[in-house]
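pasting for the record
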Amino acid sequence: MTILQTILDHNDTFVKEKKYEKYQTTKFPNKKLVVLTCMDTRLTELLPRAMNLKNGDAKIIKNAGAVISHPFGSIMRSIVVALYELQAQEVCIVGHHGCGMAGLKSSSVLAKAEERGVSMEKVETVSFAGININEWLNGFSNVEESVMHSVQMVKKHPLLPPNTPVHGLVICPETGKLDLIVDGYEDITND
């Protein structure tokens, strides 16, 4: 049986038994929060519990490393939409120790892509499109600095509502302990 068929079989039972009912909520985050975090599997349940977030409390966006790599990319667009259309009022960027993006080199990704059948001609095509593939696929060297960088990308965005707190945290994927890197309230002015 394939992974997809296993998912579909489970889903059929899930719906028939109305197990979805305990997850029903609105599209608006109860705690008025949007969180950008890493896609690491260790954080799927740990991060919300460590932050005391229940279903419906926050908009949670995930990507590799909790990194905002472009000020006008899909991650920043999602944050802006959450702030303007979905009633979020604060932003948390949450990285984690032991992240797979720490120390990641583009050469490793490209070598594995080639091993799996991607021609290097296709990689060159990406370069012709104006993308520096080596920068795009490189990770970071320090998670705290990476979180601070993503916080700054949000704080300096021209569409960020004034006085929006943008926090930066790093979580331990073994214990759930959160380390505060940036307290977004410190930059808020009372106009």
